Amino acid sequence: MITDPQTDVVIVGGGHNALVAASYLARAGRRVRILERLDHVGGAAVSAHAFEGIDARLSRYSYLVSLLPKRIIDDLGVRVRLARRRYSSYTPDPATGGRTGLLIGPEPTFAAVGAQSDAGPFAEFYRRARIVTTRLWPTMTAPLLTRDDAIKLVLAGGDPEAEETWQALIDRPIGQAIRDAVDSDLVRGVMATDALIGTFAQVDDPSLEQNICFLYHLLGNGTGDWDVPIGGMGAVSGALAAAAAGFGAEITTNAEVYAIDPDGEVCYELDGQPHRVHTEHILAGVTPTVLAELVGDPRPTSAPGAQVKVNLLLRRLPRLRDETVTPEQAFGGTFHINENYSQLDAAYARAATGSIPDPLPCEIYCHSLTDPSILSDELQAAGAQTITVFGLHAPHSLATGADPDRLREDLTSAVLHSLNSVLAEPIQDVLMEDASGRLCIEAKTTQDLEQILGMTAGHIFHGALNWPFVEHDDLLDTPARRWGVATAHDRIVLCGSGSRRGGAVSGLGGHNAAMAVLEG
Ligand SMILES: Cc1cc2nc3c(=O)[nH]c(=O)nc-3n(C[C@H](O)[C@H](O)[C@H](O)COP(=O)(O)OP(=O)(O)OC[C@H]3O[C@@H](n4cnc5c(N)ncnc54)[C@H](O)[C@@H]3O)c2cc1C
């Protein structure tokens, strides 16, 4: 066993949150080491050359940025550039076999799907939501408020609709607010997806998990805009890694942590050699379940993931059945497929019985339309495009007893089938081939996420999201509890997505863990 020099902070896992935490702590003069088991940092916020011999850097897992506070970017002096998409979303209407659709952008086309009367209420719903989100957003980088204080803060804005909006978004299942606001099944579906991405729930679930997910989707920087990271997600993590190293943090890759002693010893393996390092503080950038295993604590219950991610490289965008919009418009924002409100409900019910939904609700996003820089000059000149599909309601329970390759194939087929239901030509006809003649398509199931990234049960947020405030009887008596990063052990804090406000590419887990350490 090699004993490394003692240090102030060891961060287990090198996801983007770890990089944020390391930057803040090293900037404050702490000796910081990050231990990452893969050969690169970034975790689920990375770009990859996914296809042999093809110079396209795909955001392999996460793809859009909303919740990364400008304050963190400015504090750390990182160069992260984000681009706004021209359109918000496009949703073909399943009732016409995709021959008509709703394009939401500068001039929304509600009339095209027979929902003109929903146009005003739709805009009004999001205007009202901002009464809550703009007030709550600045609290994300501050010690936790109690629910009562959060309500007071929102009401202090003086908006007469604030209380009612709080209740609609936070106290009652979000399905009610959506149904009250608009009538069209399609428009309701567009709104409902924000409550379901990354969460296996129904919009009327009494647990309100879906409301929390909905709130996080609308909260980012007070506006809820989801922007494209220029250069891909790898550029975001790359900038954070450069900042961490610049402040003096030491980053060790290929270093798998296999045991943690809560008294301050971390054991890891590097180049086949066991190492141990003593430290004052341990930050866990891994999931709470992985942390429990490393410490030897009982495994906490953890919500399962419920999605499949499919990345494709196309020779060109496919033609649509809907001839009233161009592919550039449809793929220019979030392209919802088979995500009507009733379809989402039916898909949930089917998935809950252990079957892959048919059709599988999917949403697509085309990075290269907004930011072609992830493609080589040759690919750009040839008109190639990358698209990424996020298939919903594919819960981790489907993996129980399933052959991983077979499940990946079945889910990929379900995604392609869903996609083809709105295209005028099969997507397979426009797929590029890699250097060995294989189709440029890759899928990542919940099993893959668990195996490759250590994301427990493939949950993209390391487990269920929590409200960004606590209940009045929750203890806030230590820095770790006040910042929402506490564990059962004094020296160990969470710094990843599994911390109270940590979900998504936000750096919030890292920021809040660093603040807890610096305050302690
Ligand atoms: C398919 C997918 C799509 C998503 N889309 C979006 C999106 O568009 N926008 C968004 O905001 N969020 C999205 N998310 C969520 C977001 O990517 C994650 O919540 C976030 O990246 C998690 O960051 P993290 O730093 O907390 O942890 P992670 O990125 O999970 O990093 C944890 C790191 O710990 C390492 N590790 C694990 N075990 C050990 C060990 N024993 N020793 C050492 N290292 C270890 C892992 O290798 C990994 O690098 C998506 C996630 C997925 C999976």
Describe the overall structure.
By secondary structure, the protein is α/β, with parallel strands linked by helices. It is 34% helix and 17% strand. The chain has 18 helices and 19 strands. It has helices spanning 16-27, 70-76, 119-136, 147-155, 162-171, 174-181, 185-196, 209-219, 233-246, 288-295, 327-330, 341-352, 367-370, 377-382, 404-420, 446-453, 479-482, 508-519, and strands at 2-3, 7-12, 32-35, 47-49, 57-59, 82-83, 89-92, 101-104, 228-229, 250-252, 255-261, 265-270, 273-284, 308-314, 334-337, 362-366, 385-391, 441-444, 492-494. The strands form 4 sheets. Strands 1, 2, 3, 10, 11, 12, 13 and 19 form an 8-stranded mixed sheet that branches. It has a 7-stranded mixed sheet with strand order 8-7-15-16-17-14-18, with helices on both faces. A two-stranded antiparallel ribbon has the order 4-5. The longest helix is centred in the first third of the chain and has 18 residues, at 119-136. The radius of gyration is 22 Å and the shape is globular. The mean pLDDT is 97. It binds flavin-adenine dinucleotide.
* Ligand list: flavin-adenine dinucleotide
Portion in helices: 25-40%
Low-confidence stretches: none
Tell me the distance between the termini. 31 Å
Q: Estimate what percentage of residues fall within beta strands.
A: 15-25%
- Main pleated-sheet profile: 8 strands, mixed
* Rg on CA atoms, Å: 22 Å
Query: What does the average pLDDT come to?
Result: 97
Total number of helices: 18
